[in-house]
Write a structure and sequence with these properties.
The complex is a heterodimer. Chain A is mainly alpha-helical. Chain A contains 15 helices and four strands. In chain A, the strands form two sheets. Chain A has a two-stranded antiparallel ribbon. Chain A has a two-stranded antiparallel sheet with strand order 3-4. The chains are: A mainly alpha, B alpha/beta.
Chain lengths: ~350, ~325
């Protein structure tokens, strides 16, 4: 592990010694071995000092109690820091699904107004989302590169009926098989690479056409002719549906802004206004009967279930905030909706 | 009437039953790890800081400059008066505070209000005060250090000693540097007092504990003594211009200056220049960090973008 525990402890204002830190480091390295998407959701909640699901807090605390029996559930500041450190370690791993979940759940927590103990960890996670989006397009190049790793000459076997099937011949055959495997892997890698580039190009084209038309298929109208609150939600949803390679383009916010900046009404609205104006038919097409965990989709699902104006209590209970009174700009809502749809799309 | 009497008897019986402690319960209480209310040691401070966000106020100054009196009187302020903006909402070191306040009280039997010297090797040196700030509706947990004057004398000019004996100084949200009012009105002692404070800041700046723009409050204690010399021009000129003596530190530290009359806080002698302890607490209660609430952090600019679609994002970045 490369993360400096002492640095984050000091940032959080926790006064502790080297012995305590080394105990924590040991447990964190053990926790990293077996983390699923469910765990990521709860780790983000712990980081933001929120209530976890499925008794995850107990599991987390007990893991640390194995090494330090004085560690307790009420050490909420330290638990938050440790959860943040685990998230930081995971964001540096190779697991794309885990990274995606961390980024979007963290962004969602900030969206509803949660404050982390250590802002720096949040910044790293959010920056990682931007960097992954940027790199997908930045790493696209079409320079013709030769297939590496296999020499075709080595694969030839002489056709000679006098050859005896002995050890030497078997070795040659094995060598050919190995070369074919290498060739297959190279070809597959090339194919995957080409496929991703095609997907990115297709995605870019789709977004450009969408940008040109500025049209909502659900409403059958241009976004500019729809109620602005509804339009913001639809923009996020529609553009997410065009994404082929997650997390989508680095410039997606600027793309949305290009459309939203033409709205006559640019005033920030209360969160409840955005949710209440969304039609039930649109919500049904998007969600069916599921109840998502992210704020906008959850609010939409609840709104469809219990009606406009009645879903707020369920929302406040789920996210432990008074979010419904908070104001957002259209771009904030559109981008958050976009992220939540991306998470749903690519987690299926 | 009869019924009421009967009920009254039953109530008393119930109370008595509740007061009985069974042997099993007694042993549970003996095993209970409740705080004793003494000043905290390092382990207890860690346990508190891992549960609650703390504001560490590091109080430094030479022997007899009024540090312990200052802390004791902050606690006493909340005993004497309720402030509308800052409400007392608890302390895990009430006994620690009481021990420090007691020598200042009439019932202590002392001929005058004076704190005993803080023990140099005292491990229990952290005092906790929880206040509710009604302006922002948040609880603030203050931790005051009670470091002896001898430790200050050892550390103010020795970087290594400073880093060893005050190893949590870099965690302090505020560092309070005391200038003894008694020394400042004395022509022979005043320069020495200021030089010590200046040297402390220099040593801190050169140490590993230094963080840029550390918040330092320079407090002139015993301002009631200073006020008695208000007609002595040379004395007052020196004190009025004390800020000039710390100008060179302003680029590295966020400096603020206060004068306090800890023992006379409720009835200040110098009403114009002295700061009430409660106002000082309000000053410390303000949040120091300005959290950047931007939800889109720009990527570091050391990468030169090649892709036009990515460049579209950079060129059209909205406010």
């Amino acid at each position: 592990m490369e993360i400096n525990f002492a640095k984050y402890y000091r940032k959080a204002g926790i006064v502790c010694n080297a012995e305590t830190i080394s105990k924590r480091e040991l447990v964190v390295s053990q926790l990293l071995d077996d983390v699923g998407k469910e765990d990521v959701y709860n780790l983000v909640k712990l980081f933001f000092q929120d209530k976890c699901e499925n008794d995850y807090t107990n599991y987390f605390v007990q893991a640390f109690q194995q090494e330090d029996n004085l560690f307790a559930e009420d050490q909420t500041i330290e638990i938050s820091v440790l959860a943040g450190i685990v998230l930081l370690e995971l964001i540096n791993s190779d697991q794309q699904e885990i990274k995606r979940s961390i980024e979007i759940f963290t962004y969602s927590a900030l969206f509803i107004g949660k404050e982390p103990i250590i802002r720096e960890i949040c910044d790293v996670i959010i920056a990682n989302l931007s960097m992954r989006a940027r790199d997908n397009y930045e790493n696209m190049n079409f320079d013709g590169q030769p297939l590496k790793g296999v020499s075709v000459e080595k694969m030839e076997i002489e056709d000679d009926s006098t050859v005896v099937f002995d050890v030497e011949v078997v070795q040659k055959i094995n060598s050919v098989i190995s070369n074919m495997k290498t060739l297959f892997n190279c070809t597959k890698k090339l194919q995957d690479d080409l496929l991703q580039k095609q997907q990115l190009l297709h995605e870019e084209t789709q977004i450009m056409w969408w940008l040109l038309s500025e049209y909502s298929d659900d409403e059958g109208k241009k976004y500019i002719d729809i109620d602005t609150c509804n339009a913001a939600i639809l923009i996020g949803k529609d553009i997410a549906a065009l994404i082929q390679v997650e997390p989508g383009p680095y410039s997606i916010k600027s793309v949305m802004h290009h459309v939203i900046s033409k709205f006559a009404d640019q005033e920030e609205k209360r969160f409840v206004s955005y949710i209440d104006c969304c039609k039930d038919e649109t919500i049904t097409k998007l969600l069916n009967e599921e109840i998502p965990r992210t704020p906008i989709l959850f609010a939409l699902a609840m709104k469809k279930k219990v009606g406009a104006g009645n879903w707020e209590k369920a929302f406040n209970d789920k996210f432990s905030v008074e979010e419904c009174n908070k104001k957002h700009s259209h771009i904030e809502i559109a981008y958050q909706m976009y992220l939540e749809c991306i998470l749903r799309q690519f987690d299926k | 009437m009869e019924i009421e009497e009967k009920n009254a008897e039953n109530i008393f019986e119930e109370e008595q039953n509740e007061l009985e402690v069974s042997p099993e319960t007694k042993s549970v209480f003996e095993d209970c790890d409740l705080p004793l209310g003494q000043a905290l040691n390092a382990l207890e401070l860690y346990q508190l800081s891992s549960r609650k966000a703390i504001k560490l106020i590091y109080i430094l100054g030479p022997v007899g400059s009024g540090k312990t009196t200052f802390e004791a009187m902050i606690y006493e302020t909340f005993l004497k008066k309720i402030d509308e903006e800052l409400l007392f909402c608890g302390s895990e070191t009430i006994v620690g505070f009481e021990k420090r306040v007691d020598p200042l009280r009439i019932k202590s039997g002392n001929s005058h209000a004076e704190e005993p010297r803080t023990i140099e090797k005292e491990e229990r040196q952290y005092l906790h005060l929880a206040l509710f700030d009604t302006r922002i509706k948040k609880e603030k947990n203050f931790i005051f250090t009670d470091v002896s004057g001898e430790i200050f004398e050892k550390c103010y000019k020795n970087k290594a000693e400073l880093e060893t004996d005050m190893d949590n100084l870099d965690l302090a949200e505020h560092i309070v540097l005391f200038l003894d009012g008694n020394a400042l009105v004395n022509l022979e002692q005043r320069n020495g007092a200021v030089i010590k404070a200046q040297t402390m800041l220099s040593t801190l700046k050169n140490s590993l504990l230094f963080r840029r723009r550390m918040r330092v409050e320079i407090i002139i204690s015993k301002n009631d003594v200073v006020f008695k010399h208000k007609d002595e021009t040379k004395v007052m000129e020196f004190i009025e211009n004390i800020e000039d003596k710390f100008r060179k530190f302003e680029k590295d530290f966020d400096l603020n200056y206060f004068r306090v009359e800890a023992l006379h806080d409720l009835n200040l002698k110098d009403k114009e220049k002295s700061t009430h302890l409660i106002d000082l607490m309000k000053f410390w209660s303000q949040d120091s960090s300005t959290v950047n609430k931007s939800m889109q952090k720009p990527i570091e600019n050391n990468v030169c973008l090649k892709n036009e679609f990515n460049k579209f994002g950079e060129r059209n970045r909205y406010a």
